[in-house]
Design goal:
- The structure is a single chain.
- Strands 1-2 form a two-stranded antiparallel sheet. A two-stranded antiparallel sheet has the order 3-4.
- 38% of the residues lie in helices and 5% in strands.
- With 250 residues, the protein is mainly alpha-helical.
- About 4% of the residues have low confidence.
- The chain contains 11 helices and 4 strands; from the N terminus they run H-H-H-H-H-H-E-E-H-E-H-H-H-E-H.
- It has a domain of 75 residues.
- It comes from Talaromyces proteolyticus.
- This is F-box domain-containing protein.
Length: 250
């Protein structure tokens, strides 16, 4: 007897189904297991995998599940036919929906604003984590990095401003669903004391604020001076320029 997976393989069937589903429902269906992910992304069916195996071969990333290649044209076309409706469980109202930066589930502007007002902790201020000196120099990715494409070649973070890409996120970029926001804003202090790089258990170390990465864009952050210090520095420099101008006019 044909299974649901067999029914979903023909494009006319799955595209018709997507018309009657929300983007969040389609995402949920694609994450049931690797077989559903394959059929909805246009990949070949993955090989049968014995979940009871724990040898070294089973620990490696399986090539048949195409990690990092989830933005296939098949999936994009399928997702574009689904309804872009808010997937928040407690959604009340709101019209403009966009995808959560972390889980990609759609959330509307009203739910984003309501969640921001309900929480004391700022998503913008808690979006960074710190790395130890060794991981910063090696360019080790942080633990919560996103896979928007195939894993890129690892490059050190220790480059001068102007030589590489730095975080340019603003508070408006924090389009995050309620569940992902809670995860980001929980145990921030404890997580910032330790290196947040993959596979590292060391402490972040002294001057850890100078080795910060953004959880939203996965890029290093420029260590800017606080606003009051920057303003005081600018005022001092302006006074010095004024003194020099007066001295030259005498």
């Amino acid at each position: 007897m044909p299974t649901l997976l067999d029914v979903l393989y023909p494009w006319p069937v799955v595209s018709t189904l997507a018309l009657n589903l929300g983007v969040g429902d389609l995402l949920q269906l694609s994450r049931v297991n690797s077989a559903y992910r394959a059929v909805l992304h246009g990949f070949p069916r993955p090989e049968r995998h014995d979940s009871n195996r724990h040898d070294s071969a089973s620990v490696r990333v399986r090539p048949d599940i195409f990690v990092g290649h989830h933005q296939s044209s098949y999936w994009k076309n399928l997702k574009s036919t689904a309804q872009m409706s808010c997937a928040e469980p407690h959604h009340r109202r709101g019209y403009r929906a966009e995808l959560c930066r972390y889980c990609s589930f759609p959330i509307c502007d009203a739910c984003v604003v309501r969640e921001s007002f309900d929480q004391v902790t700022s998503a913008w201020r808690t979006r960074t984590r710190h790395l130890c000196v060794s991981c910063w120099a090696d360019g080790t990715p942080h633990q919560n990095r996103t896979y928007s494409g195939p894993p890129a070649e690892t490059t050190p973070y220790t480059f001068a401003p102007g030589e590489g890409d730095f975080c340019q996120c603003t508070a408006a970029d924090g389009w995050i669903c309620a569940e992902c926001r809670r995860k980001q804003c929980t145990d921030v202090g404890e997580q910032r004391e330790r290196c947040f790089a993959e596979g590292c258990q060391n402490k972040a170390g002294i001057e850890k604020e100078r080795r910060s990465v953004c959880l939203w864009c996965d890029l290093p952050c420029i260590n800017r001076a606080p606003l009051n210090i920057a303003a005081a520095t600018l005022s001092t420099r302006m006074e010095l320029v004024g003194d020099m101008a007066r001295s030259s006019s005498m």
